[in-house]
Write the structure tokens for this entry.
Amino acid sequence: MFGPMRASGLSLWLLASLLLAACGSLLTADVEPPEVTLAGLGFGEPGLFEQQLRVDLRLRNPNNFELALDRVSFKLEVNDKPFARGRALEGLDLPALGETVVPVTVTVPTNDLVERIIELGSERRLGYRLTVEAELASLFAGRIPFHHEGKLVLPRLPRLAQPGS
């Protein structure tokens, strides 16, 4: 007596699940991933074994609608070596066709930081790769991966006048 009713209820549940999954993939398929660049890098709390760094990520929304993001996490590689990883602690809204800067504090082993500084040498350049994943804050939450590769170029410091010259 309950067999046909259970089977039809299960069928409806499966159909509803498939429709929700399809809608979710359609929504994220129409979303262009944000663009990301490294906007800033600064020092936080110094330590003997670890250094706190502030990494500023500039996120640009190429879509003509606002993107509400629940979570933004990233990995930063410098000269093809893992350097730092972090995540924004709060959700954020990227305005339509707009941008925002997201500050993130990360901890880096002092050895890794010193090695990257030594690699600067006379070129004053470091190659970097940002790999980011953002989670959409919507009924049909989806994840959007995106990345950027670039060069960190440090400014040339002015030469100090030598005494007697």
